């Protein structure tokens, strides 16, 4: 039986993304080669060019995949918290702490920004801003936080968490830097709380 073209395309993309993700996560973007990805996936360079354009396009696809996984994990952290405020803090802190995970550290917080530029300009950035802004609006409506423009608050929180994560990822001592970053980030978030 002949498999549908759509299924074959998805399989080819998944093989290339998987091979690239392993390489980017272990040896890094600069030291990995397109020939390595295609050989591991059992495909040609032509398939890589066809589906992703080039190595940079493949990195973008890997980042999208990891970002979706990170988002699912963060949503669970938030959903499992007893209150919306605790969920908001836990989700933001968990994001910063993910910079300790080797694959995320290398791909999302070191190689990604080095190759693709400022993460606030990545395609997923607007979705993150909108999601955080919605949470800020809900927290304001429930009286948990001070009166702050939701978009401004979202952009500032995302900039702080992204900066903290990149600081951790590029540190000589990520574990120690994470402790400092998380402590400081918690203080910043607490500054949003409404007086009781």
UniProtKB/TrEMBL annotation:
Ranges that cross the membrane: none
Keyword presence, Cell wall biogenesis/degradation: no
Keyword Zinc: no
Annotated region of DNA binding: 33-52
Keywords from the named record: DNA-binding
InterPro entries tied to this protein: Homeodomain-like_sf, HTH-type_TetR-like_transc_reg, HTH_TetR, Rv0078-like_C, Tet_transcr_reg_TetR-rel_C_sf
Start and end residues of each HTH tetR-type domain: 10-70
PANTHER family the UniProt entry points to: HTH-TYPE TRANSCRIPTIONAL REGULATOR RUTR, HTH-TYPE TRANSCRIPTIONAL REGULATOR UIDR
Protein name as annotated: TetR/AcrR family transcriptional regulator
Species this protein is from: Sinorhizobium psoraleae
